[in-house]
Records
---
Amino acid sequence: MATEDTASPTGYVQPTVDVEALAALLDGEYAPVRDLVRTNLTAYADILEDAERLGMDAFRERVRDVVVELAATGQTGMGFPKAYGGGGDVGASIAAFETLAFGDLSVLVKTGVQFGLFGGAILHLGTERHHEVYLPRLVTGELMGCFAMTETGHGSDVQSIGTVARYDAESQSFVLTTPDDQARKDYIGNAARHAELAVVFAQLEVGGEQQGVHAFVVPVRSGGQPAPGVRIEDDGRKMGLNGVDNGRLWFDGVRVPREALLDRFAEVTPDGVYRSPIENPGRRFFTMLGTLVQGRVSVAGAAVSTSKVALAIAVKYADRRRQFTAASDTEEQLLLDYGVHQRRLLPLLARTYALHFAQDAVRTRLHEVFSGGAEDELARRELESRAAGLKALATWHATRTIQECREACGGAGYLGVNRFAALKADSDVFTTFEGDNHVLLQLVAKGLLTHYASEFEDLDQRGMVRYVTGLAIETLLERTSAHKLLERVRDLLPGEDKWDQEAGLLDSEYQLAMLRFREEHMLAGVARRLKRGVDQGAHPGNVFSQVQDHVIAVAGAHVERLVLEAFVERVRQLPDGDEKVALGLLLDLFALSTIENDRAWFMEHGRLSGQRSKAIRREVNDLCRKVRPLASGLVDAWNIPPEMLRSPDLLG
Amino acid sequence: MATEDTASPTGYVQPTVDVEALAALLDGEYAPVRDLVRTNLTAYADILEDAERLGMDAFRERVRDVVVELAATGQTGMGFPKAYGGGGDVGASIAAFETLAFGDLSVLVKTGVQFGLFGGAILHLGTERHHEVYLPRLVTGELMGCFAMTETGHGSDVQSIGTVARYDAESQSFVLTTPDDQARKDYIGNAARHAELAVVFAQLEVGGEQQGVHAFVVPVRSGGQPAPGVRIEDDGRKMGLNGVDNGRLWFDGVRVPREALLDRFAEVTPDGVYRSPIENPGRRFFTMLGTLVQGRVSVAGAAVSTSKVALAIAVKYADRRRQFTAASDTEEQLLLDYGVHQRRLLPLLARTYALHFAQDAVRTRLHEVFSGGAEDELARRELESRAAGLKALATWHATRTIQECREACGGAGYLGVNRFAALKADSDVFTTFEGDNHVLLQLVAKGLLTHYASEFEDLDQRGMVRYVTGLAIETLLERTSAHKLLERVRDLLPGEDKWDQEAGLLDSEYQLAMLRFREEHMLAGVARRLKRGVDQGAHPGNVFSQVQDHVIAVAGAHVERLVLEAFVERVRQLPDGDEKVALGLLLDLFALSTIENDRAWFMEHGRLSGQRSKAIRREVNDLCRKVRPLASGLVDAWNIPPEMLRSPDLLG
């Protein structure tokens, strides 16, 4: 089927994929650290079997040991300053984490908890005195810690947590208390077994005044026993990630010295005066949270990697498994030669490539923001928004891709010996941890609607509604980047107002214009609906609830536009050649299948005729046929260590 | 939010739900057997903890014991003749299975393997001599067996399996051989540990002639040891269902007597003459498979029940969990009062109700076909098609619903102590076992395209293409039931050709007409594309591959139409009152969200304007708000034993 396309009348020549060259392109500047991680993954490949073979307790110990041993190779400490034993390279630390996600996800998440969340909080919220005391032992994994933010009663809404830290000026110490069971810390990785320290988020109370949520370093365990006043409970077995010891923490008047406050953004003087360089409490809180943006970038990258593992198995299986005779009278047909099988897998493959490049862009931005000395607030907020949005899209994509790939491998995909069982169970929580995806997209929308106004952080849902309804729609739109970019459409595409009818479907400018139009139109729509609701006298909270699906949709549209831009940009930079043609096919497949998925919206808003919508469907089918002969090379270029695919029944 | 709707200007009065009355309506005629199963589920509720607590071996034994003990209560043998210790009621056996699916799914699947697949094969493919020898001990669970059809190399395409059964006239026996590893029986439930007998599907060879696939009773284990010539391997741990001992079987010249052939549809005389009342080999094969239709009806029902469990947890949680202040300045808002949360859960709730009633209809049909003496072939084929289609839609719905509900319960949903982990892992295989969903939908489409022609069973994909291309499109369409039903549209809806623009969105006739139009239009489109491809000289197999997504879409459209019809019919029969109003809301929500999901198609085909499409979106939102206050009652009416929800962290 593919050969008929090798030389078409349009001059299209079917490319071939040089796997090694494409792999080098994908690994990019971080190839050395990625290769170090690949070597380690192969060396510790047994962990995939341990996950099944060992009981939960033994597996937790095994995962801890592996994490400590990985730390000794330097791969987990890339993000810490060299002075404390780290690698001094934020981008490399994310790249290492992304690559580690090809392997067992308990190891990944334990690494994330220890070095990303716990270590990251000490590094970014603490100051030199904390760095000196904790970082050297933390970077080696000798000192294990946990990140105690979420409570049973409050996950997404961290500002409403119940744990209290009251300053006692007399003893110059903070007293931490869990007022009730809803305020217990819950689902805390490393808490049930291994953490000696916890970074605890609590409502700070100084001299009877509430100062909002702050972070404290609290010893929770010593010699394997809970510290005095600390109660620890095991969260027990989970759907997956059973090598990570999640648990619950209660504090019963636990006293820690004044220095336990991580004081980069706020301090309490010995005599009990609260001081912060950031006056606005909401802004202060979100600045603290913002330093933890690395966690979301890491999870997004991990989600892309798990999608790759699933697709690598399913594509390679479909390229060897035959079932039913079809095009031949005697030989059974390869699954990947069936139109529906291509439709199931190849748009997911294209989207995975798209997310890969979008992740590259966010990682690069993160590296710049965290490596540069300058504090550009707008850049930080945009980064936080991108990280939140990409985390949501990439993790949903992973859940969907793993499911589709499992089903595409039939009964064999259900066996524990193959990789899907673990992949599916372990990755499931990605969509809700490090921020629930819906809540994250609301955050993205809030940024768009307020154009990352400095008031941004202080706005709850109702605050946002009030803010937006105070602006003219035009003002709102003029500020958006989609608007600025759309203004260029008429220069680039023919047909003026009919650009959407006359442009070629495979023209990147057309594809970009479609996604920009959608974003801007949706944004205006949300703003109008919010205004109308408030004008009609409804409670802003009720207005928000009614418009909420629209709010989340605009955020999704925004992030998809950014993903497409990153992909287009990357392909444009490439020198001419087969790689560029092959990635161009994936780019078109991603762009058109994205438009196709939302073609109802484009038709409803006059940007797509029924005829053209059908033409896009045909073009997507055609692109699938063109990508099909490249599919195995495209998954090989991810360079996943073969041991990580671990599917003897599927890949032989 | 809901109260503003209690008395609207349109005369709509918000109903209340009498949970007990609705529960009685849902349980219907099988209430007694369902209550027996509920009692048993509660008595054996510990099994949900056993699934986590016990190792795989111990859990398998426990599940076996429970299945045998359940058999003693009569609930698992309902479908067998009374003469052999059964209940003599096919419909009741399905109802019992559906209800059992509220509980641990290993118990369910082990029950299905023993009494449905193994017992069903003996009952439906065997004759009296098999019934007398096996059924009495099989019904009690004393004699365990397995159903050895699937092979490593062939799952969906059973006609191509490799196991051979050669008749040896001299010894009057069959010799079973596994020619290679691709022909080993695989994923066979009960095979790894408990089965003494296997119903083995193999290519029958008599006097050097191939007679196609037939079923044989083969002893595979005695005193815990494999029978001579039989090799058994354990499939090991699976993603879920680890209480079921799936395994692999190889046969090395295993000899069984002539009577081992299950000979309802074919016999071999002692001197080696093959005889069958069904001359056409393809038709014979599909007649044999057709008797196993109960398996698919059972899985469809089980999928609906697992969706109910997930929704019951998520809806009840969302009706008590508060997060963020929104509509009030002081009190946090219930999750279920957020627009997006309603959008996530309530259309799934409506679709679950719709599938419930569709399942009722298919179960009733099954009961009639299998209880009536008359052999109406067309009725049988239609039943097989419905069962296949509903199985596909219901199992995909379950996968999607469980995932959405898990995410809607956040981190708590990820803990093993709550129900989602087990639900998700155990139900995952539903979409690919008892027939891969895509293959099943192709079967449905084949039935539609050939109007269940007697040639039906003999047609492979290419045969179907040739058959269809031999018909005039008009002939094809005139035969379809959607066509006949669409002819009535003009009588029922105003506006003649503009019926789609002028009818009320909440008019069931409009909703039905939309789904009928879609089905008929798609069917004509598929037929045209097949014809065109063949006319242009392409290979029928290639033509099929190119049209395959369209083929599967038409099958989905057909089944959704049947589901809607079943729901409409059920609501029409109800006496006026709150139940009718409440179910009417769910019906509208199901119908309109189904149209909404495919609104792109309706716009592309001129049956929905952009404006009307947006109006449907608003109506769905409005219906969500109306259903919201009823949601808890609607899930309570499923009468799921509270122990089965097992979500202490979520439901308190």
---
Amino acid sequence: MAWRAALRSKAVISGLLSCSSHGRLCASPTFITQRNNSTSPKIKVDYDQTTGVAVMHMQSPPVNSLSLDFLTELCISLEKLEMDKGCRGLIITSNQPKVFSAGLDILEMYGKSPEHCGEFWKVVQEMWLKLYGSNMVTIAAISGSSPAGGCLLSLTCDYRIMADNPRYTIGLNETQLGIVAPFWFKETMVNTVGHRNTEVALQLGLLYKPAEALKIGLVDQLVPEDQVFTVATQTMTKWLTIPEHARQITKSMMRNPTIDKLRTNRDADIQNFVSFITKESIQKSLRMYMEMLKQRKA
Amino acid sequence: MAWRAALRSKAVISGLLSCSSHGRLCASPTFITQRNNSTSPKIKVDYDQTTGVAVMHMQSPPVNSLSLDFLTELCISLEKLEMDKGCRGLIITSNQPKVFSAGLDILEMYGKSPEHCGEFWKVVQEMWLKLYGSNMVTIAAISGSSPAGGCLLSLTCDYRIMADNPRYTIGLNETQLGIVAPFWFKETMVNTVGHRNTEVALQLGLLYKPAEALKIGLVDQLVPEDQVFTVATQTMTKWLTIPEHARQITKSMMRNPTIDKLRTNRDADIQNFVSFITKESIQKSLRMYMEMLKQRKA
Amino acid sequence: MAWRAALRSKAVISGLLSCSSHGRLCASPTFITQRNNSTSPKIKVDYDQTTGVAVMHMQSPPVNSLSLDFLTELCISLEKLEMDKGCRGLIITSNQPKVFSAGLDILEMYGKSPEHCGEFWKVVQEMWLKLYGSNMVTIAAISGSSPAGGCLLSLTCDYRIMADNPRYTIGLNETQLGIVAPFWFKETMVNTVGHRNTEVALQLGLLYKPAEALKIGLVDQLVPEDQVFTVATQTMTKWLTIPEHARQITKSMMRNPTIDKLRTNRDADIQNFVSFITKESIQKSLRMYMEMLKQRKA
């Protein structure tokens, strides 16, 4: 079992939710405001009308944290691509070195009002709903580490190609921070690696090295680091030869039961998240985690 | 992942639904009529009362297409065997060289009235319901290729032994033809190889070589081509040592949730199939596919 | 497939439900009475308040049969530990040589009144409900064979470490005795090894050697026989570093759907068991099995 190896490795206690700024500025409300005013796009979309393939480059330094702004931008881009009938495939990748995405931005959950937390969670749901149910062929070109929400982002895709570098890890490691992955994170993982692997991975908040991730099926293919994008493009070409309508209906048939569970429970799920994350004990966990991140930086 | 290998191989685009006649006669209504008048049995049943084991030899040239006649004959034979309390085991195999069954007969779906399509689909359901829920021990002796409906037929059995010949393939490749495998095909496959393997296999319409099929659990055992039937017989002997009543109840417990879903939705499922298959775009796909088959013959 | 190996091995027909006394006394009502009066504990609990880890040593000669008394004692111990907030981990192991637990005690089901059978089944349910849903980290240190109910006991734990001795076997082999594993045994196994492995294992009542059990995921780790307990202790230490509250909620999320199915159907499940086990044909199977055990002893 790959998670036994993962449990032994130090990876378990590294990586996790992310902090969109460098450690020292993490808790600064001023910084947040500046960030909101930022106009440089956090995601660059290249869409090639000839091939019908769009590429989303995540480019939000330092670690592509999934902030409210980032996710909003992601959802808007997705909606545009989805509505363009010519766009049939989407490759998601990162322009940041060593990281695909470090996951949900803690700053959106720490010291924030219930309203803000609720608004944030809604866009996390939206991202998942749009991607897991996308009509496009979606491929994650995982060019670096991909913990927590970054792993979820990968799991929504149809195919996952990861850089074969043992320094990188991937996994839903929320438990390590004292946070619980919600049922739809869980079901997405069960649909990918099965019930038992998920039970262990989520209980322990495991992060897997690429070889371990491949073994349990958390990623589909490992390639040398400099070939991740090329192989993603080649794979996309193969997937696009499949009759489109039949493939889309088949995808829906496989994924809609899970999607419907969230769709019919969005408000309750938001309520659940907000009341959990605003608990004093959880806020304390988040603060300790951010301080740990700062110390690592220093 | 075996489906990565399958995706790379050319197998993906070969094989598929079948055509009960040789290419040139495919679209000929006259031929259909002749076929309906045929009195030679498409299935030969050998039942050994000493052992309690029946063998169904599929012998409908050239490729054991699952036509309305073929399936009707299959269902009648099944019902007889099921009602004979002495018959405890069933081996399904093919007398045609190189093929187990090439799947549903396109001629039953192409250029036919909605009524005919509905009648055909009903007997496809009936075959699945009878076999997936059979009280007998059922073993598929897969002596050749087994795409689409042929794969489904194998999946209904309790155990699958396949000829270890890399020229043969097996899989639910309907998507390749623009057709969607219905939910009960999907669930039968999920029950056998899990959710993720099914998601990829059905989206891409993958056909697996024997070694790949074994790897994901689509078949249970590979043996040299000339030993498929012998090993099936030996395996049957072992299975028949198990206390029968407990084994039957256990089998029901595992399979009834899936069976019940179709049983309570048969009419809707027929409606769904008929309205899909009679669409102009799907009929066009079927015609193109048959022309492709003809060209290959020529 | 490991169950193919298991099917070939002789293990299939050995082991099974157990008999709490030595063969010759099995059917003696006198003995039963004596047993009920026994005051020596069948389970020794060592609880180390420093580490927060309790160890349950099963010590009911000869084979830790899960009798009414044994299970009652187990449930009481579990309840005490669960209520002690300081107790965070539980290791279950056996003090009997060569066996973890031989499973449900046939004497509680053979020649007994429906009332007795019902009372017995209720405590079997209770054991499963308490363990599968425990807030503690639970680890099975499987120091010997573990058929039927012994396997179920292991499957309720969070992690299974087994002695790497090919003489030992583990599995839900009820079918071999003509008995049907109930739906919650089945679901616990599906949650651990998946649908297809469960379908074959339960239909055939397979017992797996350690290497085969590891291969399908029925156990998580094999270690030399004399290190089972040490490794269990080390593993526990790692699991206890995980933030507790998040781990517990995650565990519930994974297991509650299965637990709820039994919780809302306990009476029907008892009725079902009682009417099945008191059937003349099943009682006959049990008698034959006990006679087979006696002959083996002699």
